[in-house]
Design goal:
This protein has a six-stranded mixed β-sheet, with helices on both faces. Helix content is 43%, strand content 18%. It contains eight helices and six strands; from the N terminus they run βαβββαβααβαααα. Helix 1 packs across helix 7 and helix 5 crosses helix 8.
Length: 198
């Protein structure tokens, strides 16, 4: 199969690692070779968490600048920060709900303008799917389900060789029972949002 490279960026606590784990399980269920690496940074203090996932036969999990087929950002500024991983053929999916960094909250920094941020991403990549995933997670009944909303959007693109049913089965295996219903709803809402964005 053709190799596909996915980068997921988030802020600590947003569920990036669970999303990566669900994708890994789905790949396993589908018999698709997959390798993954993670950079945790200062995740517990709201720092960046980055996952690099390579589907298909690849010798390394390192995704160098310009190599990502897909970039998924759980937080808009982190999506922009990871733009160097993209090229003119990359599809980018981002949550548009900001999590203000400490420096912005104390008046020592300025958060990027969301409209300008989207323009910068569109100028460098093939396609941008941008929506407020946090609102959809709330609609699903769990504000922490932003990761599952964005997984739904990711699978909708059809770029990864994973089917919705397989990802949902992986969610059943990887998420806590009490959150499964809201996670599945969040996935469907994200899938629809990506469909509408297209």
């Amino acid at each position: 199969m053709e190799t596909k490279r996915l980068v997921i960026v988030a802020v600590g606590g947003q569920g990036n690692l669970l999303a990566s784990s669900v994708l890994g399980e789905a790949a396993l269920l589908s018999g698709i070779p997959m390798n993954m690496s993670e950079i945790h940074g200062m995740a517990q203090r709201g720092g960046v968490v980055e996952s690099a996932i390579v589907f298909g036969d690849a010798k390394s999990t390192i995704i160098s600048d310009g190599e990502a087929d897909l970039l998924v950002g759980f937080e808009p500024a982190e999506t922009l920060r990871a733009l160097s991983k993209c090229n003119k053929n990359t599809v980018v999916i981002t949550n548009l709900a900001p999590l203000m960094p400490f420096t912005v909250n104390i008046g020592q920094g300025v958060y990027p303008d969301l409209k300008q941020l989207q323009e910068l991403i569109r100028a460098k990549t093939a396609k941008l799917i941008a929506f407020n995933a946090t609102d959809l997670a709330k609609e699903a009944g769990n504000v922490l389900a932003v990761n599952m909303v964005l997984l739904g959007a990711l699978i909708q693109t059809g770029i990864l060789p994973l089917k919705s049913e397989t990802v949902k089965e992986a969610m059943k295996r990887k998420t806590k029972t009490q959150f499964l219903k809201s996670n599945l709803k969040a996935f469907d809402l994200g899938y629809s949002a990506a469909e509408n964005a297209a």
